[in-house]
Design a protein that fits this description.
Layout: H1 2-15, H2 37-55, H3 59-70, H4 75-82, H5 86-104
Helix pairs in contact: 3-4, 3-5, 4-5
């Protein structure tokens, strides 16, 4: 039941993107924050492809990546949420990122 609620929440926030806010700092006044329809379509297509590939990963990889990389939880917090140990979360993230990287045809993230 929790998985359904979590996935529904993820879908909601993925579909209802937040509006970009323009900062009020002096150093940001020269930045261009216009959002052209072409770039919006390209961003949406790339996001769609990414989430499709993410959905094809094993459950463990997908959950670990979503919590740590997309939701910003620490490994310790993700381990607590998933009732796993921290090493399992770390391994799942590393393996999942490696699989995603191979599917996307790119290099693995160095972070």
């Amino acid at each position: 039941m929790i998985t359904i609620a979590r996935n529904t929440t993820y879908d909601h926030f993925r579909k209802n993107k937040w509006v970009k806010l323009i900062p009020f700092l002096k150093e940001h006044e020269e930045l261009d924050f216009t959002y052209a329809p072409e770039s919006w379509l390209l961003d949406n297509e790339q996001n769609r492809e990414f989430y499709e590939m993410l959905g094809q990963l094993k459950y463990e990889y997908r959950e670990a990546i979503v919590l740590t990389k997309l939701e910003g939880f620490s490994v310790k917090e993700a381990a607590s949420i998933l009732n796993w140990n921290e090493k399992k979360v770390e391994n799942a993230v590393l393996r999942g990122v490696k699989k995603l990287s191979a599917q996307l045809g790119g290099e693995e993230d160095e972070r």
